[in-house]
Amino acid sequence: MSSDAPDRARAGHRVALTRTDPRADIAAMEAALARLLELLDDPLAGLRAGQRVLIKPNMFQTEPGFHVSPALLAAIAKAVAEHGALPVVAERTHALYEVLRDHEVHKYADVVSFDDMPLRVAAIPGATSLRVPIAVPELVLDCDYFIGVPQLRTHASVIYSNGMKNLVGLLPGFTTRIVHMAGVDESTVDLNLLRPQDLVISDGSTVIEGNYPMEGDPREVGFLAASTNATALDVAVSELAGFRAHEVVYLRDAHQRGMGPGELAEIELLGTPFEELSFTIKRAPSVITPPRPGIHVHADNACPACRRWIAAALEALGDELRAWDGEMTVVSGPQVDLPEPRGQVVLVGNCLYESRDAGVYVEGCPPRAIQIAAFRYAMGQPVGPQERTQFRVPAEPREGVPR
Asked: pTM for the full model?
């Protein structure tokens, strides 16, 4: 290999970085966006009048700090509209209607929830997990250009969430359950095969760290990153935040499938020096720590994702479990024989399907954050009707299984 070969390899995967004020207004975000686009040789230059451009943000929650900057969305929509293209800002759930109500983004783009769009059943060529056709919004399949706008977040199940994981939000409503049943990591990569992003702009102005998605805390950091390759962007931003890209299963999978680089050395970094922006994000818990005696966990055989999910659930429910005077047995992973149940029984993960009638059963690989309600149900706490759909209780409860 010639001495300049590594430089040529990096040039194929470029990631642009710039500072931004965490509370930047639209004008400031326009300036920051312009810097990123210039560094990437203006990937919007090829847009044509009348083309439909899908802009997919992380915006399925309304809490302040728990979504991308509306000012950044407005800046992107304006840049698209200036080319004569037709931008549509879309995300699952109706949260974006509330977050963007009366916002300037409406001057440049239509704003619509995937929950309100017509669906089409589509196969994903090359899928390894989502191997049967699934229903997705027609706009995802028909758009002429696709811009992802993720918010950098830690994640209790998959460690890290950014550009690639943002595409799980292409599935409307609670159909994201399909991803968790099939396996989150591989399904995330499959969805990126369904409709690759033409441009990804990661919002690191405010990030979410800690025990997300069960809890989590907003943290103002102040950067934006962009790339025309989602895998490259995720590898670079993971390292920027103190992760190692090889820790993240779906990034390793995407690299093995030829979708992008596997390490930072393969990426050409542009703009603000990497070292000036790097920081250490607070991670979600990964070690299972029962909050008190009487909470018995049997998860030595569980996969890492389910172990992380249990660790996050026990941390999130720590105060509630300490206040509850009962006993609980939590089981996860393949089991030749179930351990002796002590108190209420919660079974976590697809591996325990055959034992589903032995307790409150939480399916998934790993489960979703909302399924933490299974623990509250086992403690005798009330749960809402939507939460009640997220776990299974035997029709004829056995001893130790709540009705």
From this structure: 0.93
